[in-house]
């Protein structure tokens, strides 16, 4: 039913268009510059014989990733189908012998490739600066950080396609995307901090785990800190939780949930898009 | 005149040599003799040699295995050639020293008993002015045990305990969610060096690994500890009821606590390195009921807590580097009148933590117009005197919440936490208890510190990281290039 060749054609077209749109180019430049600046100035302030654990540089890079990557994935992804609906080009595309699922999958792949390239460019240049200035970052940690950043971006890209499918105009899609970003990145954590302030630890820990699993941005943040700083970073109160996440069953659980976050919204958008006729 | 004087000077050394020669000849009859012990010589047992020896004699021991306990009750020099083995046979102490001024040098000492209540040791000393030097003291319950023994010199020994590995992990095995403040791990081994009521000893350049505590001072005062290296133990240095000790240039790595100072006072420690004490109940330096002590020029790096103060009064903590710890200084408000000045606090996730949510009476972070350097200080220095014009205040609503509800820590470094921090700076309406440093430095203070060379990552990893980064750039470049080519077609 689904043809790989068709998917690839659409992916390449999407990749090409995203490069043309200047959105991605702007993003790549901004992300790369920020990553460079953080690693350059962050490292130059160190007087500690070059020793580095989980510190200011990695913490700032993490914050940059958490803010910027979901935002750009949401904005680029949500405007793709909704934008084409608005200008009518989607109609033209669908007169070709391609199925709707091929269109969605192809667009996802194309955008995923474009965003991955941008992220690799940003982290690559930051890595060069770190290697040149000190080189005292743990390489495995850095690679895990990069991979988790890409996963985070793809999860939000998947969500953004769902947004794009359910909306009809570009502006509507972008507005919804920004709302989703604001909610998952900021509001959600405020609510969760409120819940975490409940005193009964036995109740709080399973609750926190649920809260983490429900928000991919939180999951990625906690995984990055666990990788970079070790479980002690979260203190003894959360030992049960962090140790569970580090154990085999915990890793499987997190992997499965991230996988669901990655392909759940995508599958849902395929399903909705195939049933709707709003273009 | 001048010439004559010169000639006299030229003759002078010759004169001394002559006198020395005659002195040697004269003293020959009463000079110490040397007794040789070897597995297939005239004397095959060390105890036999000691029995034959007069005080002041030297006993040289050829390489080989010597079974059975050794008792030294005369002032002799026991010199091992190429590390002969003394095996205690797993009963009592391998070597017991009861005479003063004994030297034990160059042995491998093994196989003490295992009874903690008798404190079985590799070498047990009951006397004064002994020198224990360059020995390998392995697989004993206690390595060296000084029982009311004073003025001894313990130098350059390697002490390795029973292979109880991974004490840090063991200390957490019984962890529950309400983890206490102090490590629960007691251990079944003995200490590397244990000083019981022993004073004025010098402990220099020893290496201690895998014992219960590294060096344990129990009612032992006025000792000096220089240049020791202690790793993978419970407490690297442990003072109990031991006052007026000095402790400098030691390196303490991967311990549950680098040093634990308990019920002691007047302890001076300078230029030590406390690193990699990681675990839920781990500390670089633990002050528990320790008063009037001075910490100067030390490095605290990569510990769960850098320095921890519990019911400790009037201590001075100056010119130290506290970096890359989860909590730089953990100050319980039961500790009062401590002074923290001239320190560099850099890149700690939390610079100062106060569990009870208050600073504690009389604890000061500045004195005589000088404070500390805090890398998260965001003030300014308009008069260019190197001191910030507005006070440094530690903590923000998020760290405050972390104290109130430790589970909040899960949201460490989240955008919401950053937002809380930011909002508090813009609108300081929430009253959060804070540490205040009225004279913060704006640049890191230039400190005299021990060499950190062993902490820097080898240069090869530079190239590997550079290589990976280049590979990332290459992949990105390939994708972009492909698109450009397509556009051209």
Provide an overview of this structure:
The complex is a heterodimer of chains A (279) and B (489). Chain A has one domain (4-275). Chain A has eleven helices and no strands. Chain A has 279 residues and is mainly α. The model of chain A is unreliable at 45-51 (pLDDT under 50). In chain A, helix 3 (56-87) runs antiparallel to helix 9 (216-229). Chain A is globular. Chain A has helices at residues 4-20, 23-44, 56-87, 89-95, 100-133, 139-166, 170-196, 201-214, 216-229, 239-246, 248-275. With 489 residues, chain B is of the alpha/beta class. Chain B has a domain at 457-489. Helix content of chain B is 18%, strand content 30%. Chain B is built from six helices and 40 strands. In chain B, the strands form four sheets. Chain B has a 13-stranded parallel sheet with strand order 1-2-5-8-11-14-17-20-23-26-29-32-35, with helices on one face. A 13-stranded parallel sheet of chain B has the order 3-6-9-12-15-18-21-24-27-30-33-36-38, with no helix packed on it. In chain B, strands 4-7-10-13-16-19-22-25-28-31-34-37 form a twelve-stranded parallel sheet. The longest helix of chain B is centred in the C-terminal third of the chain and has 30 residues, at 459-488. Chain B starts with a helix and ends with a helix. The chains are: A mainly alpha (279), B alpha/beta (489).
How are the SSEs placed, and which strands pair?
The complex is a heterodimer of chains A (279) and B (489).
Chain A: H1 4-20, H2 23-44, H3 56-87, H4 89-95, H5 100-133, H6 139-166, H7 170-196, H8 201-214, H9 216-229, H10 239-246, H11 248-275
Chain B: H1 2-27, E1 34-37, H2 46-52, E2 58-61, E3 65-67, E4 70-72, E5 77-80, E6 85-87, E7 95-97, E8 103-105, E9 108-110, E10 121-125, E11 131-133, E12 136-138, E13 142-147, E14 153-155, E15 158-160, H3 167-173, E16 193-196, E17 202-204, E18 207-209, E19 215-218, E20 224-226, E21 229-231, E22 235-240, E23 246-248, E24 251-253, E25 257-265, E26 268-270, E27 273-275, E28 283-291, E29 294-296, E30 299-301, E31 305-310, E32 316-318, E33 321-323, E34 327-331, E35 339-341, E36 344-346, E37 350-353, E38 373-374, E39 392-393, H4 397-404, H5 415-426, E40 436-437, H6 459-488
Parallel strand pairs in B: 1-2, 2-5, 3-6, 4-7, 5-8, 6-9, 7-10, 8-11, 9-12, 10-13, 11-14, 12-15, 13-16, 14-17, 15-18, 16-19, 17-20, 18-21, 19-22, 20-23, 21-24, 22-25, 23-26, 24-27, 25-28, 26-29, 27-30, 28-31, 29-32, 30-33, 31-34, 32-35, 33-36, 34-37, 36-38
Antiparallel strand pairs in B: 39-40
């Amino acid at each position: 039913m689904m043809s790989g060749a068709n998917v690839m054609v659409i992916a390449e077209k999407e990749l090409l268009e995203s490069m043309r749109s200047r959105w991605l180019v702007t993003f790549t430049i901004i992300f790369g510059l920020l990553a460079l600046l953080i690693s350059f100035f962050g490292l130059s302030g160190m007087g500690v014989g070059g020793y580095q654990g989980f510190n200011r540089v990695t913490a700032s890079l993490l914050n940059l990733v958490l803010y910027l990557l979901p935002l750009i994935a949401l904005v680029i992804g949500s405007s793709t189908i909704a934008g084409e609906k608005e200008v009518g080009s989607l109609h033209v595309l669908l007169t070709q012998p391609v199925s709707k699922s091929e269109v969605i999958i192809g667009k996802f792949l194309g955008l995923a490739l474009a965003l991955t390239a941008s992220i690799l460019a940003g982290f690559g240049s930051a890595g060069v600066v770190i290697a040149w200035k000190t080189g005292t970052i743990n390489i495995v940690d850095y690679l895990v950080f990069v991979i988790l950043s890409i996963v985070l971006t793809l999860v939000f890209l998947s969500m953004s396609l769902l947004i794009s499918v359910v909306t009809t105009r570009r502006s509507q899609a972008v507005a919804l995307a920004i709302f989703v970003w604001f909610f998952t990145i900021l509001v959600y954590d405020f609510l969760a901090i409120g819940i975490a302030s409940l005193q009964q630890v036995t109740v709080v820990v399973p609750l926190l785990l649920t809260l983490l699993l429900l928000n991919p941005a939180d999951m990625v943040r906690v995984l990055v800190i666990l990788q970079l700083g070790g479980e002690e970073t979260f203190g003894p109160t959360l030992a049960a939780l962090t140790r569970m996440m580090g154990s085999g069953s915990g890793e499987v659980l997190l992997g499965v949930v991230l996988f669901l976050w990655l392909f759940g919204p995508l599958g849902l958008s395929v399903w909705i898009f195939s049933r709707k006729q709003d273009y | 005149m001048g010439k004559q004087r010169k000639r006299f000077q030229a003759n002078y050394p010759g004169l001394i040599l002559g006198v020395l020669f005659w002195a040697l000849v004269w003293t020959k009859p009463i000079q110490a003799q040397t007794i040789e012990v070897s597995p297939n010589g005239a004397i095959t047992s060390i105890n036999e040699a000691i029995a034959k020896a007069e005080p002041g004699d030297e006993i040289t021991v050829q390489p080989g295995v010597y079974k059975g306990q050794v008792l030294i009750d005369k002032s002799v020099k026991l010199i091992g050639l190429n590390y002969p083995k003394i095996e205690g046979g797993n009963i009592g102490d391998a070597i017991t020293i009861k005479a003063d001024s004994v030297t034990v040098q160059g042995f491998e000492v093994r196989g003490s008993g295992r009874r903690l209540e008798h404190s079985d040791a590799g070498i047990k000393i009951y006397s004064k002015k002994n020198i224990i030097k360059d020995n390998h003291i392995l697989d004993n319950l206690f390595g060296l045990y000084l029982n009311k023994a004073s003025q001894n010199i313990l130098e350059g020994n390697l002490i390795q305990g029973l292979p109880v590995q991974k004490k840090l992990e063991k200390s957490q095995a019984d962890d529950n969610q309400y983890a206490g403040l102090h490590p629960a791990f007691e251990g079944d081994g003995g200490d590397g060096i244990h000083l019981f009521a022993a004073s004025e000893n010098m402990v220099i350049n020893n290496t201690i690994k895998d014992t219960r505590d590294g060096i344990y001072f129990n009612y032992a005062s006025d000792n000096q500890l220089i240049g020791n290296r202690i790793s993978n133990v419970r407490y690297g240095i442990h003072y109990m009821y031991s006052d007026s000790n000095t402790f400098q240039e030691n390196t303490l790595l991967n311990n549950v606590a680098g040093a634990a100072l308990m019920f002691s006072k007047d302890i001076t420690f300078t230029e030590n390195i406390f690193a990699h004490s990681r675990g839920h109940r781990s500390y670089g330096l633990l002050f528990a009921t320790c008063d009037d002590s001075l910490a100067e020029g030390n490095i605290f790096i990569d510990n769960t807590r850098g320095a921890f103060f519990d019911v400790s009064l009037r201590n001075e903590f100056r010119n130290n580097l506290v970096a890359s710890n989860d909590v730089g200084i953990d100050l319980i408000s039961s500790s009062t009148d401590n002074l923290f000045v001239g320190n560099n606090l850099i890149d700690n996730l939390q610079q100062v933590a106060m569990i009870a949510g208050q600073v504690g009476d009389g604890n000061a972070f500045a004195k005589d117009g000088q404070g500390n350097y805090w890398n998260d200080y965001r003030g300014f220095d308009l008069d260019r005197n190197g001191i910030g014009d507005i006070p440094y205040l530690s903590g923000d609503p998020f760290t405050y919440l972390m104290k109130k509800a430790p589970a909040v820590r899960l949201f460490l470094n989240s955008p919401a936490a950053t937002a809380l921090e930011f909002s508090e700076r813009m609108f300081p309406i929430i009253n959060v208890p804070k540490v205040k440093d009225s004279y913060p430095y704006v640049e890191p203070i230039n400190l005299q510190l021990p060499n950190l060379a062993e902490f820097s990552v080898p240069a090869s990893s530079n190239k590997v990281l550079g290589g990976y980064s280049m590979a990332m750039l290459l992949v990105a470049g390939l994708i972009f290039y492909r698109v450009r080519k397509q556009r051209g077609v």
